[in-house]
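Lab notebook, design round three. We kept the backbone fixed and only want residue identities now. Task for the bench partner: fill in a sequence for the structure below.
Input structure tokens:
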């Protein structure tokens, strides 16, 4: 697209008015509860690196940057929102003209706050050029593949990536206005109340706007927007029906094991590569996550079935389908999201005897099993057996079961298996 096409649509005064409107709307927005990732962003403030906040649409990326902006002060930064349809056709080459107008409207500043940067072709050139002139960038984006490809090519070593997920359980509690008690001194009533909130969190999820306006079908609208705008249109997919059916299946079966070959047959697609591509597109838009089995052989990791997790249990409930409550799988999905916030890599594990253990974290060498409850002796025996076999296979001595209540640890042949309340683990 010719660089003059965008400028030809607007007068200088119209562009200045747009920049002022964007800034004022951004400054006035409700900044909500403080997100945990705000501390990470502030730690990067003194570095010359760009800070890239990425994640699902509507997950709160702009709000997080607004929280940062209020720490910086109203006269410290410029704001650009490339989701605004008035920026359609904008090219990286147009940046100098916009910068000149920003200076005319706001004066000289050294910080850029930029929303949905992936909508600008060649945006990485723009950022790199201004960074070389000493400017600091705080950026949001909603496409993982686009960001990683362009970051790798132009900003290598000069950016700090921050992934923003939906509310954690503790953020959800703050959003609800609940003051977390001291768990070491909590009463029975307080613990019961936390269990009620956990059930609510599992059902509704942690995407801020749908929580704020529960009377509106915002989760369904978000899901449809991602499938059509972020995936089908962006990747020029002709078999939209197959994409929608695959996404619906994955959203309806959180924490499930999948085989690409079986999915190819199930959805009548001619190639396993098509399934791989579709799942990659869903991942790039942060709808789902793929988890590999842990194996010392990378090849075996690649060919073994994957486990699929959803970005948000509320979204899974809103757009998926289940004959009966899918509580156990949703709890596992919730634990996965909590682990992703903390761990660099998450795997599932198959023990030497063929038992599945939900999570293995290689950095901390930690095995974790998730169970809705251990009320039935057979259930408890099954979970302990699987975890013990996996521990022996990996040469470990300590494992963890997360469930509805604390229980005494199991000591078995030099192994210790701890049983913890999921609520306490999430808020700990």
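Proposed sequence:
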């Amino acid at each position: 697209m010719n660089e003059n096409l965008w400028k030809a649509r607007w007068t200088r005064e119209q562009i200045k008015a747009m920049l002022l409107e964007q800034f004022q709307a951004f400054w006035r927005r409700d900044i909500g509860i403080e997100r945990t990732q705000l501390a990470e962003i502030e730690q990067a403030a003194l570095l010359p690196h760009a800070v890239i906040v990425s994640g699902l649409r509507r997950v709160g990326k702009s709000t997080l940057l607004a929280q940062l902006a209020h720490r910086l002060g109203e006269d410290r930064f410029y704001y650009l929102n490339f989701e605004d349809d008035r920026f359609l056709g904008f090219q990286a080459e147009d940046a100098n003209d916009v910068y000149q107008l920003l200076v005319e409207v706001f004066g000289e500043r050294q910080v850029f706050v930029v929303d949905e940067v992936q909508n600008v072709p060649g945006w990485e050139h723009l950022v790199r050029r201004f960074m070389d002139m000493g400017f600091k960038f705080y950026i949001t984006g909603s496409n993982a593949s686009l960001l990683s490809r362009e970051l790798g090519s132009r900003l290598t070593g000069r950016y700090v990536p921050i992934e923003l997920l939906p509310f954690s359980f503790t953020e959800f509690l703050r959003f609800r206005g609940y003051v977390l008690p001291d768990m070491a001194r909590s009463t029975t009533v307080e613990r019961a109340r936390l269990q009620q909130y956990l059930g609510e969190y599992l059902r509704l999820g942690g995407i801020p706007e749908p929580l704020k306006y529960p009377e509106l079908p915002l989760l369904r609208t978000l899901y449809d927007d991602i499938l059509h705008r972020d995936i089908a249109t962006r990747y020029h997919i002709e078999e939209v029906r197959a994409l929608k059916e695959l996404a619906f299946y994955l959203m309806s079966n959180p924490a499930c094991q999948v085989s690409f070959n079986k999915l190819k047959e199930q959805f009548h697609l001619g190639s396993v590569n098509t399934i791989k591509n579709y799942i990659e597109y869903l991942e790039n838009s942060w709808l789902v996550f793929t988890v590999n089995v842990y194996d010392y052989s990378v090849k075996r990791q690649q060919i073994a079935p994957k486990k699929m997790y959803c970005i948000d249990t509320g979204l899974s409930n809103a757009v998926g389908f289940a004959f009966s409550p899918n509580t156990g799988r949703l709890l596992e999905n919730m634990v996965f999201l909590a682990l992703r916030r903390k761990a660099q890599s998450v795997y599932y594990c198959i023990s030497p005897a063929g038992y599945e253990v939900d999570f293995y974290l290689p950095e901390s060498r930690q095995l974790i099993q998730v169970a809705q409850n251990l009320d039935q002796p057979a259930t408890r025996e099954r979970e302990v057996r699987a975890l013990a076999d996996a521990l022996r296979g990996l040469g470990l001595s300590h494992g963890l079961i997360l469930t509805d209540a604390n229980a005494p640890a199991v000591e078995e042949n030099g192994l210790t298996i701890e049983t913890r309340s999921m609520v306490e683990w999430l808020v700990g």
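Keep this in mind before ordering anything: The chain has 19 helices and 14 strands.
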